Structures are given as structure tokens and as C-alpha cells.
Task: inverse folding
């Protein structure tokens, strides 16, 4: 999988010729110091590169075109150290196709009360210059993130870091390729959608392949290669004696080898399959899909390409964070005590969300008509998380995100042969489930204990898609009104 280590965030400062070479030299030095400080911050997951101070319309236009062409540039942080007349920025910003964050800060934390004079005032007027810049970005109706605060404050750094992760996801989305083995599970509505419009909006491509393309690739691996991967299974996971079935493990390992090779050869970052179209395969891809997700691939069950793409994008956004991200499904409820959701799927939950060492198990599936598949079984740890989905509303894409709190199972689950997470949706199951259904949310989601609502909101803003938030403050009558207003707004557009 592609690394995020080479990605760059460009730090750009605006000024003008009016101040002369002396003050402009100070502006440039202050800008470098801020960029270097951001670059040294481990919470900002990419390199921060200081660019020259922008003082002319031509220079701004050239910089924006340079950013557009730079493969490793994921976005720009723009700051007006002094006053920078905003008409200079129109041509460049109109051409810019990379996301940008508007940082409203100033170099000095406090007023130098005993020495402040007009030279200081002319040099340090971001309070003035950023408002001028803010007008033109609003006038041009540009998507952007505004962060206000002193540049060395932890809160300011955290907001920039959150937006940077969203920009990383957007950068991945522009290059992402999704492989789709077979079509949708038959007659399912929400996993359908307009792939052409998705490529226009999100940038990623979705390509279909017959299952024979995969089984042909599987057949190319030798028995020794299969045996080596089976040995890795036995070393990596807990396996009870009754589940250590060499025939089942061998079939699962061959599926993983073939699937991983197919995705690597084609440069794919995500994939889907459906249990209604697996002719020629001995098992449903269980452990293979789980381990591929743990390697960073996105996945969507039953042909759900939107969720597969979102899962990969969210994994890139979460790169380097400790907690995990997985394909997920709201499977069943517990209405006893505080109502909660049992999230799971037939097989394909990513072990990056496991609490402790997963157990490798082999059980009948009861669906799909294949041999007993190998899967990893585990429970997600307690803590905050989000579940997110993207649906095609016909005239637009809508992202729906719910804040949730994962809790330990109240009792053991000795007969549940799948990985799972149990959570309380915010504000509660009654309101959250109703809100999700009113918004048309899918039954498949991407679950993450690494990302937050803020990450997802920033990604939606960069993408230009509608966001429906379901959180502690959600009220059904207000949300239903918001959905009506959104429909009206998108019809006007």
C-alpha cells in the first residue's frame, strides 16, 4: 500500500509590496518559523513545507498551479501576516484544485504594551488581513476550513492536524481504484449508485471483474506458498484444536494470496465481493478480507463499492493513529438496560479494532452455499468511535456520521463466531436509529475508533458533499427540518 510519509502540506503567507523589503523579510522569516514549528509537531502527520511570501497576483497564480501539479501536495495552509489585497488572490484561488485551510493567527502571542508602535501595527495585522482574505473566499464560495488561534497553542495544532488528515483522505480519493468482484447482492438498493458521478465527485474509480479473474490468480500459487501463509496464521492467532483444520486453512490462505496479488498488481486500494457470486471459490473470503483490511485496504460487502472506498479513505486519514478502522454493519440490537447496537458482519471485520489477540476459528456460515470459512473472532475495546456511511440520494451524495461509545459485552458471547463491537449510539439508540433512517443511512458503515466527527466533517467539506451529523445534540424534529432544507438547497443548485 502507498505510504503517507511523502505527503506535503504547503504553508503560504500573504502580504504585499507596500511594506518594503525590510518588513517583508521579517514576514518571510516569521512564516518559516511557523512552518518549521508545524513540521516538527508529531500530531500533524505530513511534512509542512514553507513557501515564499505571496505579494503579487502572478505569484499567487503560479503557486496555485504549482500546487495543482505537485503529486505529493495534499493541500495548503494560507495565512495573511499583513494586509494582502484580496483581488490579488482571485485568479489563483479560482484555479486551485487542492483543499486549503485558512489559518487566522498572528506571530506574536501578546501585545508588547510598552513598545508597540505603528511599525509593529503595520507588520502584525493578520486581524485585518485575514478578514480581507476571508471575504474573498466567501465571495468565491470556496470550500475551506477556518482555524482561529495562536499558532503554538495545542488546540490550534490539533485543529490543523484533524483537517490535514481529511486532506490526506481527499488526496487518496483522487487516486483510489476499487475492484469489484461480481455485482451487488441481488435487489439491494443502498449498495447501488452512480459510479460515474462518484468519480466526478470523489475522484476514485470502480471497475468490475469476474470471479474467474480472481480464481485464476489464486491457482498460480504453489502449495509451498500456501503452507507458508498457513504457518503465519498459526503463529499470529490463537487457534483452538477443533479449529485447526488444515484443509480449511489451506483454502483460506490460497484465497488471500490470490486476492492480495490481484489487488497489488492492479494498484487497487479497495475491493468488494458478494456471496451470491463466488463460483469456483471453496469459501467466502473471511480471514483474507480481514487481513487485507488490516494491511490498509478498504472493503465493502455485497458489492458495496461506496463503503469500500470510504473504508480505504478513512484508513488513510487514520494513518499512524493507534486505534483501528473497519467495515461494519449494524447487525442486531439489545433493548435491555441501556439500548445498544451489536455491530458485526458475516465475516469481514478488520482486526485493527481487536482488543487483544484475535482467535482464528472455522465455523459453518449458514449462508452462501460454501464450505466452512476461516475467520478471526474478537471484540472491539471500549471507547468513543464514529460510524459513517455515504449514500447516493439521486441528485447528490450524502454522508451520515454518528458518534458512538463502544462498551464491553455485558455477558460472554461463547457461540457468536464473528468479530463484533457493541456500542451506545449518541444521543441514544431511539433517536440515533430514527435519525439514521430518516436520513436514508445504509446498513453498511465504516467504523473507526481512530477518527472523530471533526475528521469526517472536514472531509465532507473538502468533498463538497452533504453531511448529516448524529451526535449528543441531535433532536429528531430539528434533523427532519434540516433534511428538508438540504433537499431544497440542492434542488436550487
Result:
Amino acid at each position: 500500500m502507498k505510504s503517507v510519509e511523502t505527503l506535503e502540506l504547503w504553508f503560504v503567507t500573504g502580504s504585499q509590496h507596500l511594506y518594503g523589503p525590510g518588513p517583508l523579510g521579517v514576514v518571510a522569516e516569521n512564516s518559516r518559523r511557523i512552518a518549521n514549528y508545524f513540521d516538527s509537531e508529531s500530531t500533524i502527520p505530513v511534512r509542512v513545507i514553507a513557501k515564499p511570501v505571496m505579494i503579487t497576483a502572478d505569484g499567487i497564480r503560479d503557486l496555485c498551479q504549482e500546487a495543482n501539479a505537485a503529486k505529493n501536495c495534499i493541500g495548503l495552509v494560507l495565512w495573511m501576516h499583513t494586509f494582502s489585497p484580496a483581488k490579488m488572490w482571485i485568479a489563483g484561488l479560482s484555479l486551485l484544485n487542492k483543499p486549503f485551510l485558512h489559518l487566522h493567527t498572528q506571530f506574536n502571542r501578546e501585545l508588547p504594551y510598552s513598545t508597540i508602535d505603528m511599525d509593529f501595527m503595520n507588520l502584525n495585522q493578520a486581524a485585518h488581513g485575514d478578514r480581507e482574505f476571508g471575504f474573498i473566499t466567501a465571495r468565491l464560495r470556496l470550500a475551506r476550513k477556518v482555524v482561529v488561534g495562536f499558532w503554538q497553542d495545542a488546540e490550534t495544532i490539533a485543529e490543523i492536524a484533524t483537517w490535514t488528515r481529511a486532506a490526506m483522505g481527499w488526496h487518496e480519493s483522487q487516486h483510489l481504484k476499487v475492484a469489484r468482484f461480481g455485482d451487488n447482492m441481488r435487489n439491494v438498493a443502498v449498495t447501488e449508485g452512480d459510479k460515474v458521478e462518484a468519480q466526478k465527485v470523489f475522484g476514485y474509480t470502480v471497475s468490475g471483474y469476474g470471479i474467474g479473474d480472481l480464481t485464476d490468480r489464486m491457482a498460480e500459487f504453489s502449495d509451498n506458498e500456501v503452507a507458508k501463509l498457513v504457518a503465519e496464521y498459526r503463529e499470529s492467532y490463537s487457534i483452538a484444536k477443533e479449529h485447526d483444520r488444515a484443509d480449511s486453512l489451506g483454502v483460506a490462505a490460497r484465497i488471500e494470496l490470490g486476492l492480495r496479488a490481484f489487488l497489488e498488481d492492479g494498484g487497487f486500494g479497495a475491493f468488494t465481493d458478494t456471496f451470491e457470486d463466488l463460483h469456483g471459490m471453496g469459501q467466502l473470503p473471511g480471514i483474507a478480507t480481514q487481513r487485507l483490511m488490516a494491511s490498509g485496504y478498504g472493503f465493502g460487502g455485497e458489492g458495496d463499492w461506496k463503503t469500500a472506498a470510504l473504508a480505504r479513505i478513512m484508513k488513510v486519514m487514520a494513518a499512524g493513529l493507534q486505534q483501528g478502522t473497519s467495515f461494519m454493519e449494524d447487525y442486531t440490537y439489545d433493548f435491555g438496560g441501556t439500548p445498544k447496537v451489536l455491530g458485526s458482519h458475516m465475516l469481514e471485520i478488520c482486526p485493527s479494532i481487536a482488543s487483544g489477540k484475535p482467535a482464528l476459528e472455522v465455523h459453518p456460515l449458514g449462508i452462501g452455499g460454501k464450505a466452512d470459512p476461516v475467520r478471526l473472532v474478537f471484540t472491539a475495546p471500549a471507547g468513543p468511535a464514529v460510524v459513517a456511511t455515504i449514500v447516493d440520494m439521486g441528485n447528490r451524495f450524502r454522508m451520515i456520521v454518528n458518534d458512538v461509545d463502544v462498551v464491553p459485552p455485558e455477558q460472554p458471547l461463547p457461540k457468536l463466531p464473528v468479530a463484533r463491537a457493541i456500542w451506545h449510539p449518541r444521543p441514544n439508540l431511539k433517536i440515533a436509529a430514527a435519525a439514521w433512517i430518516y436520513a436514508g443511512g445504509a446498513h453498511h458503515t465504516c467504523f473507526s475508533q481512530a477518527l472523530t466527527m471533526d475528521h469526517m466533517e472536514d472531509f465532507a467539506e473538502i468533498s463538497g458533499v452533504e453531511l448529516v451529523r448524529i451526535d449528543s445534540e441531535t433532536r429528531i424534529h430539528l434533523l427532519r427540518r434540516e433534511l428538508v432544507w438540504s433537499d431544497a438547497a440542492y434542488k436550487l443548485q
About this structure: Residues 400 and 468 are 5 Å apart (CA to CA). The first helix runs from residue 21 to 40. DSSP finds 15 helices and 18 strands in the chain.
